[in-house]
């Protein structure tokens, strides 16, 4: 049978084919509509500028037409053939049962029976034609089949359910055989990392979404994303690195926060600092770090300031971490977590306080970032403020007072209070406020002691106690200053006056402790059947 070459096809400017118009039109609805039933000898020409798969793929469908609908459909060409069949409208309505579109659809339905290597080959070709593969459903089915295989393999691996994000899936054991077994288990859990690391960022994004929807182990997903980032960075350009990082961050953000360690997040942050990633991805990373602020270390937070800034460390970034910690934690923030973050911040504030370029507003923001209840003791913060005031001697009295007012004087130790009363760097009003706070604390302590004592002593024993207090050891009366403090005089006189009052406060603290010890001893020795005279307690004037 003679073959006529009456159709010239220009494919995307890559190559021109001479074809038998009648044969091609008998399989292609698109060309059949274009040329109708014309069989004239005149040569026609058609130009395709967007043919899927280019000249190579057009040659495949041409062979399909010339071979009377026979062609080898395999994982390496199924996505190309399907997209070309749709483009050329090679459906049942044109060529009956012998049509390329139906043949490729049937192969796609059998994806679940393909081997792992075949699935990988198909997936790699899908990413070359991602737009077409996505609309046709090939890509989604291929990803679902891959995730299904991984889920079956993961169920047989103990690592998939017992590992933590920090442990790398391994536990130490004295039994070498047991250790090797766990290593093999971990290998079974991540055997697919290298195979899928060749995928484009967009395909990895789709893969992660499919894994999450299939409830695949999120710890393994987070490890794969970290592996993917590291493996792709070796040969990637700056733009490619930025795209990979954004996909990795967005993927991690969809997972449970407990599935990735704080250390890993800070590792990503170190890389992000040198790349201009999107603001959305950066915010997501900061939120993830902030939600795990209680697991961070001081070294994690000591991040250099952005280029062109004079201050040493990036204080703004740490403040955003704290904001995220308080916002993301919400009602889940336990006192233990809050205190861990407070201790960490005390260390950080002490580290940045000597920076001569750290602005007053930023230092104050660090001091007041956490609620008062986060700290049981404010000594560390007091010493950091002391250093900051020494380095920034040029601060105005108003600025100094704002910083000092952030202190909770009631939670200062006696040593810190003594230091404060003699500290010329602090405003005089702060010293007065500290003294008032100490007096109030001691007054409350005395009131509590007095109430406890009233519960166990009778009125007659009260007189006896008063008498013994005058004769007993350490019975001197400690009288606190109760008049109005005059802070209008010079600071040195006021400071000397405050130091004298401080001595009275310290002595009263000692006596209160002694009185509490005597009460505890009395309660221990007293029994319900005892009717004798109770042991007297010293009483002090106020």
Automatic annotation (TrEMBL):
Swiss-Prot/TrEMBL keywords: Ubl conjugation pathway
Its annotated pathway reads: Protein modification; protein ubiquitination
Region entry Disordered: which residue ranges?
A: 450-469, 522-542
A Pfam family this protein belongs to? NPH3
Q: Where is the composition biased (Basic and acidic residues)?
A: 452-469
Might you name a Gene Ontology BP term for this protein?
Answer: protein ubiquitination
Q: Where is the BTB domain?
A: 5-67
Instruction: Pinpoint the NPH3 domain residues.
Output: 190-441
Q: Which PANTHER family match?
A: OS12G0117600 PROTEIN
The family this protein is said to belong to:
Belongs to the NPH3 family.
Q: What is this protein called?
A: NPH3 domain-containing protein
Organism of origin is Gossypium schwendimanii (Cotton)
Q: What is the lineage of its organism?
A: Eukaryota, Viridiplantae, Streptophyta, Embryophyta, Tracheophyta
């Amino acid at each position: 049978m003679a073959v006529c070459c009456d159709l010239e096809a220009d494919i995307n400017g890559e190559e021109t084919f001479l074809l038998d118009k009648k044969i091609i039109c008998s399989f292609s609805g698109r060309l059949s509509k274009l040329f109708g039933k014309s069989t004239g000898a005149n040569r026609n020409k058609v130009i395709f500028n967007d043919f899927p798969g280019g000249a190579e793929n057009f040659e495949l469908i041409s062979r399909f037409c010339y071979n009377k609908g026979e062609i080898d459909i395999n994982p390496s060409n199924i996505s190309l053939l399907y997209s070309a069949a749709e483009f050329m409208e090679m459906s049942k309505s044109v060529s009956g049962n012998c049509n390329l579109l139906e043949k490729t659809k049937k192969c796609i339905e059998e994806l679940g029976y393909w081997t792992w290597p075949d699935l990988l080959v198909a997936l790699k070709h899908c990413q070359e034609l991602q737009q077409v593969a996505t609309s046709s459903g090939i890509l989604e089915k291929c990803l679902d089949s891959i995730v299904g295989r991984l889920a079956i393999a993961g169920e047989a691996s103990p690592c998939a359910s017992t590992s933590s994000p920090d442990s790398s899936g391994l536990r130490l054991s004295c039994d070498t055989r047991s250790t090797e077994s766990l290593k093999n288990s971990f290998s079974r859990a991540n055997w697919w990392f290298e195979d899928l690391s060749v995928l484009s960022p967009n395909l990895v994004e789709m893969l992660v979404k499919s894994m999450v929807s299939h409830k695949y182990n999120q710890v393994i997903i987070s490890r794969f994303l970290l592996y993917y980032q590291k493996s792709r960075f070796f040969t990637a350009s700056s733009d490619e690195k930025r795209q990979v990082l954004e996909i990795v961050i967005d993927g991690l953000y969809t997972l449970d926060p407990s599935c990735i360690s704080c250390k890993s997040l800070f590792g990503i942050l170190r890389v992000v600092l040198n790349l201009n990633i999107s603001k959305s991805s950066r915010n997501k990373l900061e939120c993830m770090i902030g939600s795990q602020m209680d697991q961070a270390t001081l070294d994690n937070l000591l991040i250099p300031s952005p280029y062109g800034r004079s201050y040493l460390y990036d204080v703004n970034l740490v403040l955003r971490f704290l904001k995220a910690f308080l916002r993301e934690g919400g009602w889940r923030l336990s006192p233990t977590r809050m205190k861990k973050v407070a201790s960490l911040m005390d260390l950080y504030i002490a580290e940045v306080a000597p920076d001569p370029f750290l602005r007053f507003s930023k230092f104050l923001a660090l001091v007041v970032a956490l609620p008062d209840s986060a700290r049981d003791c404010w000594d560390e913060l007091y010493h950091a403020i002391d250093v900051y005031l020494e380095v920034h001697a040029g601060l105005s009295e108003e600025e100094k007072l704002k910083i000092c007012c952030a202190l909770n004087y009631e939670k200062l130790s006696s040593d810190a209070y003594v230091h404060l009363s003699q500290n010329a760097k602090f405003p005089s009003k702060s010293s007065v406020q500290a003294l008032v706070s100490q007096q109030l604390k001691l007054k409350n302590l005395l009131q509590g002691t007095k109430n406890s004592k009233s519960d166990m002593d009778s009125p007659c024993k009260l007189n006896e106690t008063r008498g013994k207090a005058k004769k007993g050891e350490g019975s001197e009366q400690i009288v606190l200053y109760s008049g109005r403090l005059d802070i209008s005089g010079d600071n040195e006189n006021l400071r000397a006056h405050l130091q004298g009052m401080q001595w009275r406060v310290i002595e009263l603290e000692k006596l209160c402790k002694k009185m509490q010890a005597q009460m505890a001893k009395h309660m221990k020795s007293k029994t319900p059947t005892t009717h004798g005279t109770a042991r007297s307690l010293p009483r002090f004037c106020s």
